[in-house]
Amino acid sequence: MDKISQIKQLVSEINRLHRAFSNDYFETGKIDKINLSRTIKHVPARHIYQYRLTLHECVNDYLMTADIDIKYFYRVKTRESIDDKIERFSSREDQYPVNNWLNDIFGARIILTADEIASVMDLLDDWQDELNLKNWYLRDKEGYRGLHIYFKNKNNFYFPWELQIWDAKDLQSNIQNHEKFKRNFM
């Protein structure tokens, strides 16, 4: 399987796992469904923490069923990082829907070449429709560069997940910028 097919397979599998986990979590009737297209004052922190803890405890059960042939890394956002984001976005004058900024409780990452990233970007509009993705964008700010793809399966009750695609040449500067700008809570 060529690299671009492997990347498409990874995107498809993350989306499938997001859908499976979200269905198991939200559609069983055991958990309240809260519309995440609302602002943080309408989404209790307790709801976010419960989701994060459940995901943290069982994400490996879902990942073990994945058909993925490409090396990737993942993490579940810490509660401290969630608190930091809640604090930053709660204090803004402009209030945004929770699912627009708390879109990375689960995050995966792959490292590619610039040419591979360009090929993926050429295909993402088609993949967005075909694979039912939320959106994607290329972030290039303050020394950080990465392609971000979001999964929510067109449901405002599901927390989005994120896949970051980094260029191998940006690896060290991206790590340094994550430490500098994304870990204020430490």
Share of β-strand residues: 15-25%
Average of the residue pLDDT scores: 93
Strand order of the largest sheet: 1-2-5-4-3
Number of domains: 1
CATH fold-level name: Beta Polymerase, domain 2
CATH-defined architecture: 2-Layer Sandwich
Sequence stretches where pLDDT stays below 50 over 5 or more residues:
none
Tally of extended strands? 5
What overall form do the CA principal axes indicate?
globular
Q: What's the order of the H and E elements?
A: HHEHHEHEEEH
Distance between the termini: 41 Å
CATH class: Alpha Beta
- Could you describe the largest sheet, including whether it forms a barrel? 5 strands, mixed
Number of helices: 6
Structure description:
This protein is an alpha+beta fold and 186 residues long. The chain has one domain: Beta Polymerase, domain 2. The protein has six helices and five strands; from the N terminus they run ααβααβαβββα. It has a five-stranded mixed beta sheet with strand order 1-2-5-4-3. Strand 3 (135-141) and strand 4 form a beta hairpin. The model has no long low-confidence stretch (mean pLDDT 93).
